[in-house]
Design a protein that fits this description.
Blueprint lengths: L26 H6 L1 H4 L3 H15 L8 E2 L2 E2 L2 H8 L3 H13 L4 E2 L5 E2 L1 H17 L5 H14 L14 H4 L2 H5 L6 H5 L4 H9 L6 H13 L13 H17 L17
Antiparallel strand pairs: 1-2, 3-4
Length: about 260
């Protein structure tokens, strides 16, 4: 969960973070994380407390104060309870890859750090200006013309823009076309799908693997222009296929891209 490049200070972050009321908690990721599943119940409880402390930290996702890493003694005091148990839980969380340690010794959450970097990037891109209504219309137009994977024979009156209009409100005004064409990684796609009902993680992962292996082109060679609307279309088609009764199923598969 915390392997790979150690996080530095998120670009655009300041000592005084914007006060946010809550953070997103992905129950599916919590239950399926292999490293976390190996931890004791005590360690999981301590980790929840630490996540709350990290969220309110001046560097969101990292336990620091005035750019100084918290020592284990300070973490133990902040969490409370039996100090020996909390220390043992800290060792368990780091040794099993749930929590990470920076070079300066600061304890951090890879997921929270990444989510904060994405949030700051979206805030920066949104601050570049742009007409929100115009952006919405452009997104709708792309949804209507840039989704050849959708079979019109299922229901030609239903389009991703009508069934997933709420996604338009969540798409940030990213000026860089490459940010719209593909997510940074599968975790960003899972984060986008996390707040939307009916977006099974396994379907999202299959979509990402299929698009990534094809160089982010559809089966007809058309490049993906907006990965969010493309994912919306994929999930919608998958839901229709799985919910259609056998008698109404098409005799011919929609496309090989949806065969799993």
């Amino acid at each position: 969960m915390n392997s790979g490049k150690k996080p530095g200070r998120p670009k655009g972050s300041t000592n005084k973070q914007k006060k946010l009321p809550a953070f997103q908690f992905y129950t599916g990721d919590w239950m399926k994380d292999a490293n976390l599943r190996r931890c004791t119940h005590a360690a999981k409880g301590v980790w929840i407390d630490i996540l709350c402390l990290m969220f309110d930290s001046e560097e969101r996702g990292v336990l620091v104060s005035r750019r100084r890493a918290w020592g284990d003694d300070e973490i133990v005091l902040a969490v409370g309870g039996d100090s020996a148990i909390v220390r043992a839980c800290l060792e368990e969380l780091t040794s099993k890859g749930v929590a990470g340690r920076r070079k300066d010794g600061a304890l951090y959450s890879k997921r929270m750090v990444r989510d904060e970097e994405i949030r700051l990037k979206n805030v920066t891109n949104g601050g570049k200006g742009g007409n929100k209504e115009l952006m919405r219309k452009r997104t709708e137009a792309a949804n209507k013309t840039d989704n050849p994977d959708i079979d019109p024979n299922i229901n030609p009156e239903i389009t991703p823009s009508s069934s997933f209009s709420s996604s338009d409100d969540n798409i940030k005004k990213e000026e860089d076309a490459s940010l719209l064409a593909r997510p940074q990684d599968v975790e960003e796609a899972l984060a986008y799908a996390g707040d939307r009902p009916g977006y099974p993680p396994e379907v999202v992962r299959h979509w990402y693997a299929s698009r990534d292996s094809a160089g982010w082109e559809r089966v007809n060679g058309v490049p993906v222009r907006n990965w969010r609307s493309d994912l919306d279309a994929w999930v919608l088609t998958a839901a229709r296929q799985s919910s259609s009764p056998p008698a109404r199923r098409l005799s011919k598969p929609l496309t090989s891209a949806y065969s799993w």
